[in-house]
Every structure is written in structure tokens, then in C-alpha cells.
# Entry
Amino acid sequence: MQVTSTTVVTYLKGLQERIMLSVQKLDGGLLTRDEWRKDPSETLQGYGVTQILENGPVFERAGCGFSHVSGPNLPPSATQHRGELKGAPFEAMGVSLVFHPRNPYVPTVHMNVRMLIAKPANAAPVAWFGGGMDLTPYYGFEEDAVHFHENCRQSLAPFGVDLYPKFKKWCDEYFYLKHRAEPRGVGGIFFDDFNELGADKSFEMMQSVGDHFLGAYMPIVERRKELPYGEQQRAHQLYRRGRYVEFNLVWDRGTHFGLQSGGRTESILLSMPPLVSWSYQLKPSPGSEEERLYKDFLIHKEWIA
# Structure
């Protein structure tokens, strides 16, 4: 198989549809579909589809965006490891999602799969893949972390036994709030600038990651969505969501790429939670469920043997 933009776009559109149909079936809320296209007068050209469910009984906000854009100059966030491609024209396509559940016992999740093609003037096009998925709980359940990581490992197993530990470590290091010296959640897998298997196999690996998402996350939602909670749990969830906002705005390369390249702001920021709070030097009570999250889950550890 010869990987082309058309091949990748077809897969990505289908993935978005499958995931959001599953979300709507579980939640039952109203799914909004927003198709957009960049204005011809803008530097960045392209189109996309944003699908989002808000204010549902299970998800306060579940957003999943597909985009396919091209531009004359790769932004700095895309060339920080590839200096030789600085300023090259590019084509980028991907699906990115963040689901913010209503019940504090259900974790937030992020998943992204993408391909980027740089087209330098005096050289052949250079394509690479990126993506991954990671889990951000507000209350820790080891069973959920193990299940999520096991599915991450299964998604990579056909392509090399070394990939899960490599991408798991990469995820731990990437989704880390340096200004707070704190992991965002319990991790998962993350990869970027990847073409080590060749274009065809690297694309197959990317597809496997995308295809394993529903099995990694939806059983956790099913297990936790009916658990009773009160004001204390809700307040803790909103406070911890603040960490999510901080990471996405301060450190996330995907957010930076979208904003630096002139992307569609409303779609780029669909990852933001609908409600969030910050408190000054808030400390969890000793022995509480909230303290256990910090001590036993917001740490870098091996979840599966």
C-alpha cells in the first residue's frame, strides 16, 4: 500500500464518525456537527469537521475534531526537532479529541492521531506520524489505569515489543506540568515525528492506536458513570481541571501548532473544559481520596508488568 493524503484522510474521517457515534449512543445528548473551511484570503488553507456533545448526562463536553490543512511555512512548534525543515510548506491532517465527563469518578481522556508532510523546496517531501492517548483521573482507580495501559500496549504490540515502553515513557515526560512538577494524569502513550517503520507500517501503527481508543476508554466510563458523588467531589474535579487547562495552553505542542499556523481557534480550543476553578495553595485533607490521587496516581509508575 502506498500511503497518500487521501488514504489518511479517509481513515481519519471514519475514525471520527465511529468514536462520536459511540459517544452519542452512550450519552444520548445532542451531537453538534460543524463543518468549516478556511477563507481563501487566509494564509492557512484547508477544512475540517468539529463534532461536539455538550451538557449531556454523561459528558459535560465531548469534542472531537478532524482537520486537513496546508500552509506555506511550518510553524516553530513543528520544527523544533527538525531544523532542516524550518519554513518549508506543509500539509497536516489529524483527529484530536478530549472528553470531559460530568461524574468526577470518570476520568477525562485525550486522544490524537495525525500525519504531517513537509515539502522543502529542494528535497523530497518528508512525512511523519504522531499521536497517542492519555488518561486524567480525578479519583484514582488502579483497575482503570491498568485497563487503559493494557489497551495502549495491545495497540502497539504488532509493531514491536519495544514501542509500548518507549511511548509510555515519552507520554510520562510529555504530559508533565513542569511549572508544578506534576504529571497531568496516569499517562498512556505518546509519539511524534515518527516514521521509523516506513510510511506504510507507521500509518498502520497510527491506525491501530486510533482503533484501540474506544476499547481503552469506554469500559471505564461504563464502570464509573453512575457512582454517587457530592459537592466535595465536584469541587475537586473542577480544581483538577485547571491543571488540564494549564497544560494545554502552556505546554501542548498541538495547541501551539494550531495557533501558530493560523488554525481555527474555536476548534483548537475544543479541548477546554466547560467549567473549571482555581484555588490558592489548595491542599487535600490527609487520608482523603483526594490525597490518594496525588500520592498513588499522579506519579510516574509502571501500571502493567
